[in-house]
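Researcher: Please predict.
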Amino acid sequence: MVFVPFTGIDNHFRNVTFGGALLGSETADSYRWLLRCFVNAFGSEPKVVVTDQDAAMKRAIKDVLSRSRHRLCMWHIWEKLKTKVLYCVL
């Protein structure tokens, strides 16, 4: 099971969890379905979407959230960078 949280920022600049979902698989089709449900529930696309470097999620965002900006999470980038730099040093 894959947990997908929907987190945003409220009018007081605090983190707010809008919702979450459990998916049976990490496929582009599963993410497309979930993102369509999110847009249907909230009535509009988010301005910015921040994710890890999942290729299936990237395709789904491109297809469903065409007006949203997709950005990568810096934490995930730094974590991958540490392992790749360490691998190159060894």
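Model: The longest helix spans residues 74-89.
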